[in-house]
Amino acid sequence: MASITPLQFDKSPKIAFHRTEMSAILDIYGKMVMAGQAKDYAIGMHEDHAVFAIFRRHAEAPTWRIEKIPELRNRQGAFVVYGNQGQVLKRGHDIKTVLKVFETRKFEVLNFGKPS
User: Pick from 26, 90, 78, 91: which is nearest to 52 by CA?
Assistant: First the structure.
């Protein structure tokens, strides 16, 4: 006779973005979609940080990552924006201040190859 084993779910607490933080992030993401700079996003919730990844195309590494790392809140700030190479573009204590990096810069793809 077959036995039924219950599924084991990971019940450890996860870090997530608060509703107001998500609202600010999705506002910026919507502007990027309208400008043709973003096409997709992904959200990850982990034990030590939360990630909102923005993709320029569907099947590639994220172009930008917005991370919430509560462990760093008393030092550099809990919020970080990373570029596609992993470089820190902005870090701070307030999500709206950190997201200003998307308003002050023009993110354009530079073509250093052969002219098309």
Answer: 26
pLDDT in tens, 23-56: 999 999 998 888 888 899 999 999 999 999 999 8
Token readout for 69 is 């790392």
Task: Give the number of other CB atoms < 10 A from CB of residue 99.
Answer: 20
Backbone angles phi, psi at 13, to 5 degrees: -65, 140
Q: Report the alpha-carbon angle 88-22-64, nearest 5.
A: 30
**Pick from 85, 84, 80: which is nearest to 101 by CA?**
80
CA-based Rg of the chain, rounded to a whole angstrom? 18
The identity of residue 82, as a single letter, is Y
